[in-house]
């Protein structure tokens, strides 16, 4: 995501939230999902690895189109037992909406509740929290797209790696873009990657690289390398790190984590990019997504962050054009699936009304649905971000509690049902599909 949200509220012994907030979560779980809580799913749901066939995802030979969401906060919340109910509540609520993949962070570098305390030094307590997140997702049949580092400063990010190298006296530059070219930092990151990929889950007993609960890996959230607008520096890093990952884990899918901007050599940079600055970020959607070690392309959609003067109508028109352009690239150029792994509309816009967000969601879902009908490369979308009640201090101006607004909830579940009508459901969901759709077929 472009903006760094307000991530945490800290009390004397870690994460703190009011008793009322906790009570609301408990009430929500038991009143809304009591039927689910009476069932344990351990060892009951069998998942297969998601694979790629050209520009499509497949599971057990069947096409797989994704209605997904972002809950970046899972690992952080799993560290403390009093906040773990939020993870289960979110996963079970998502299952009842027929959602199939959640994108979340598998990193926290040198920050509060850090997974990686310093280069190569990990907090086992936090690692077991990530184990818990994966195990919980496995129990309800939801897969995880795990992001491995942040371009932004939140949760450490590439800036933290540069600080580590600088502090140890081995850094080439204090610029955070040195993350992409400094040999010492590349070693730091490769050590981290190997540790994550070969981690043996203390709950399931599976190494991460052998667990089909993990949909795939994302190299970095929203990479930019503005000190080299040619894109060569970032491209070299993508090729090196993706090759390294595939040498350890060739079972999982891999993407870059791009926002989708076209680079300086792309003919689309002037006609499709949001504004002129987008071609100078050191990224290139086509070039960055092309290596054989990258299995699918990723794109984000934040029209109100990218445009300051466009009207709402103009922004929504851009959304459809942006999506169609990238899907076309997936089908005609890359021959790979394209996932819109973040999309959001800010509630800080002047004159904002929740109905505008509903309209935005519907546009995104309609484009994916049209792609699915044609067995196209537009393989899925992930709203930024979903939360449960009592999480106001973890929210930003894009987050929602989906079931709090009936029209939004209906749009989300309606998308599940439309996709299922075309291709069925290849992923088990805890909610009965007919109950979810309730006549929408």
Explain the overall architecture.
With about 450 residues, the protein is of the alpha/beta class. The chain is built from 13 helices and 15 strands. The protein has helices at about 20-35, 75-80, 85-95, 125-140, 155-165, 185-195, 230-250, 285-290, 305, 310-335, 355-375, 405-425, 435; strands spanning about 10, 15, 50-55, 55-60, 60-65, 65-70, 100-105, 115-120, 120, 145, 215-220, 255, 295-300, 340-345, 380-385. It has an 8-stranded parallel β-sheet. A hairpin with a 2-residue loop joins strand 4 (about 55-60) and strand 5 (about 60-65). The protein is globular. It starts with 9 loop residues before the first strand and ends with a helix. Residues about 1-40 have low confidence and may be disordered. One of its GO terms (molecular function) is mannan endo-1,4-beta-mannosidase activity.
Please outline what is shown here.
The chain contains 13 helices and 15 strands. It is α/β, with parallel strands linked by helices and 441 residues long. It has an eight-stranded parallel sheet.
Shape: globular
The CATH architecture category equals Alpha-Beta Barrel
Q: How far apart are the first and last residues' alpha carbons, in Å?
A: 34 Å
Fraction of residues in β-strands? 5-15%
CATH level 4 superfamily? Glycosidases
CATH topology: TIM Barrel
Uncertain ranges: 2-41
Secondary-structure content class: alpha/beta
Reading the helices and strands in chain order gives: EEHEEEEHHEEEHEHHEHEHEHHEHEHH
Number of domains: 1
Largest sheet: 8 strands, parallel
User: What is the tally of helical segments?
Assistant: 13
How would you state the average pLDDT, rounded? Answer: 89
Gyration radius, rounded: 21 Å
Provide the helix percentage.
Answer: 25-40%
Which strands sit side by side, in order, in the main sheet? 12-11-10-7-6-15-14-13
Please provide the count of β strands. 15
GO biological process, one term: polysaccharide catabolic process
Subcellular location: Secreted
GO cellular component, one term: extracellular region
Domain Glycoside hydrolase family: 48-386
């Amino acid at each position: 995501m472009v903006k760094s949200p307000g991530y945490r509220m800290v009390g004397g012994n870690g994460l703190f939230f009011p008793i009322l907030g906790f009570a609301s979560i408990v009430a929500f779980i038991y009143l809304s999902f009591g039927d689910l809580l009476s069932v344990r799913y351990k060892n009951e749901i069998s998942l297969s690895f998601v694979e790629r066939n050209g520009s499509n995802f497949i599971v057990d030979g069947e096409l797989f189109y994704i209605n997904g969401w972002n809950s970046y906060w899972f690992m952080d919340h799993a560290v403390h037992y009093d906040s773990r109910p939020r993870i289960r509540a979110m996963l079970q609520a998502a299952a009842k909406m027929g959602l199939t993949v959640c994108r979340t962070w598998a990193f926290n570098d040198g920050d509060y509740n850090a997974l990686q305390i310093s280069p190569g030094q990990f907090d086992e307590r936090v690692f077991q929290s990530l184990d818990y997140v994966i195990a919980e997702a496995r129990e309800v049949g939801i897969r995880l797209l795990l992001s491995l580092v942040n371009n932004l400063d939140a949760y450490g990010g590439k800036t933290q790696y540069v600080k580590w190298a600088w502090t140890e006296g081995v850094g080439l530059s204090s610029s955070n873009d040195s993350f992409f070219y400094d040999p010492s930092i590349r070693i730091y990151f490769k050590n981290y990657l190997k540790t994550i990929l070969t981690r043996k889950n203390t709950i399931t007993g599976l190494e991460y690289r052998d667990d089909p609960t993990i949909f795939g890996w994302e190299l970095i959230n929203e990479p930019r390398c503005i000190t080299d607008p040619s894109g060569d520096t970032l491209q070299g890093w993508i090729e090196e790190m993706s090759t390294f990952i595939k040498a350890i884990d060739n079972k999982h899918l891999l993407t870059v984590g791009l926002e989708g901007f076209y680079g300086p050599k792309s003919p689309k940079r002037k006609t499709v990019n949001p504004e002129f600055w987008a071609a100078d970020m050191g990224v290139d959607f086509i070039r960055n997504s092309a290596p054989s070690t990258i299995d699918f392309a990723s794109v984000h959609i934040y029209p109100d962050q990218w445009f300051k003067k466009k009207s709402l109508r103009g922004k929504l028109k851009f959304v459809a054009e942006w999506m169609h352009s990238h899907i076309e690239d997936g089908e005609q150029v890359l021959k790979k699936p394209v996932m819109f792994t973040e999309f959001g509309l800010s509630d800080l816009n002047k004159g904002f009304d929740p109905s505008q967000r509903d309209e935005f969601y519907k546009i995104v879902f309609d484009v994916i649905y049209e792609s699915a009908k044609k067995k196209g490369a537009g393989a899925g979308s992930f709203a930024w971000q979903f939360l449960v009640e009592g999480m106001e201090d973890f929210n930003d101006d894009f987050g929602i509690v989906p079931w709090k607004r009936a029209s939004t909830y209906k749009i989300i579940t309606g998308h599940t049902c439309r996709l299922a009508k075309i291709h069925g459901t290849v992923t088990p969901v805890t909610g009965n599909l007919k109950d979810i759709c309730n006549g929408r077929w």
